[in-house]
């Protein structure tokens, strides 16, 4: 039979037949569960896109001499930067949490960040898809071996110069001259700011090398006058494996009975004129009814040592003078234990850790000017005694609330919806580059108009 003027055209009839068959196939697949993996894969892709709304990170594969080779025979930064598993803490922390504690070096962040970014949900193997480019150069480890030896300025700059010579040849670098690149500096920024080529001057000149002028830097202490630097928390000894680890530790420090008003952990520095640590040490050793002392010249004070953790756990406040710079790892050990830091220099908290700590430092800490304390150390006890139990609990609860932001979890940890210090740092970097890209596009459009 041939189609007539009143019959349905054959192509239209075939289209409806095809559609009917497809619908039947979909129903059969659905009833047999075959479509479920497809829907799950779609949901997973959509979730990943939402989680990475600020962009993705491309990780360079640097020559091993610039990172992995620097780890040889360095046990303090084994286990992807976490260090060796902690021992002797069974009487200090809940037993089922002891496996989450490591002897983590205070300057191990560049190794920790490299491991974490390699396992980060928002990375990409395609440079064309990247918003940010991570350079996993272990700058702190590269310079450390020369800092305390008879080295030349050229020795201390060698690895940094080699890294920049390598990265400048990469296509992504040439696209924007490194302005969408970033790296992690495990040491304080001052170790990379040598001004001259004098062999007697401290550190390397890495930050002042011309090719570094556009590169964003994460560091455990930033220069307040450098807009390309952002400080991130020092690593502590606690590396949670799960959301449960975090919640249990929060409950533990919340319920801790504390017998000391304040504590001081540290060692005097006899080579420093009018050493403020010596003043605090002498004062605390006399103020035995209120202050607990851990003298690190007498007691082992390796990173996260039981004596340190126990002292902080037993004290409402912890005295925090400046360290090698204005900041100090001890501040994070203190807050990890739910103790309230007492600062003596504004530079220890102002213009530092803006992504991780509350803007109003008085919500979680006390400030006593070091010049006033030098003249009258008794002001320390008088000031701290003014804070009633409810005020102390309020400040401690503030610390407990933001504590996850100060922690570095293990790479395979499942923290549920909690973001740790690394997550917050990566989000900050991606937001910064996203904003930068928008400004560049807007500027280009304005020029075209």
Automatic annotation (TrEMBL):
Keywords: Glycosyltransferase, Golgi apparatus, Membrane, Signal-anchor, Transferase, Transmembrane, Transmembrane helix. The keyword Membrane applies. The chain crosses the membrane at residues 15-35. One of its GO terms (cellular component) is Golgi membrane. GO terms for molecular function: glycosyltransferase activity. It is a single-pass type II membrane protein. Belongs to the glycosyltransferase 47 family. This is Xyloglucan galactosyltransferase XLT2-like.
